[in-house]
Amino acid sequence: MTAIWKGYIEFTYPIHKIQKTTKVSRRQQEKYTQKFIDLGFLRVFTRSNNEGRYRSYFVDFSTLKNPEVLSQIIDDTDSSFRRWCSYHAGRQKQVTKASTKDSQNNSDSINATRQRLEDTYNERIRMYNEGKLTEEKPNRLKKTTELSNTNGVRDKIGKLLLLHSDQAINHAFLAYADDILKGSIKPNKILQYFLAEEDGEFKIFDSYLNKFNMEYAYDRK
pTM score, two decimals? Predict the structure, then answer.
């Protein structure tokens, strides 16, 4: 149950440890688990990882604190447990509210970065069309475009933002955009290629961040 106090989130606790700690048999555990599910304060999930399938739990303290629910599992005279449940119901509400706010802030940052990349790309197109990125003004002008805004793209931007600043990402993308406009590379999908991830590494991004630092840092076009 330790994970509850670390964030009031979904947690795991092996059945054999429950049995060792409480002396409650597996069969009795299943009986109590189903009762708690029926009362509405316990949710049980079956998850899987590389080691196989496992069970995880979530305790809803806002439901557990209700007198009608508590009366089904404890003695009515146990006021200390009632206070304990009320306290954690309040804390769970606060943590959930804060988590929702953090998630929204993260989403806003991702959207802002993606929009900045799109603005940078279209600005480099304008400069390309004016002949500022090449020795001569091009004969065929390029049109501005709207870059991809899929869940996959946003997820990758979110991962990059954990490793690099918005400014660093934009710098790398600027160098990348110039290579596209000059015809040095021809990716089928602009953002997807730039954000390509392999074994936790963003190799395309890394190479263009290095290129920006080497070629643009002191003499930006």
Answer: 0.55
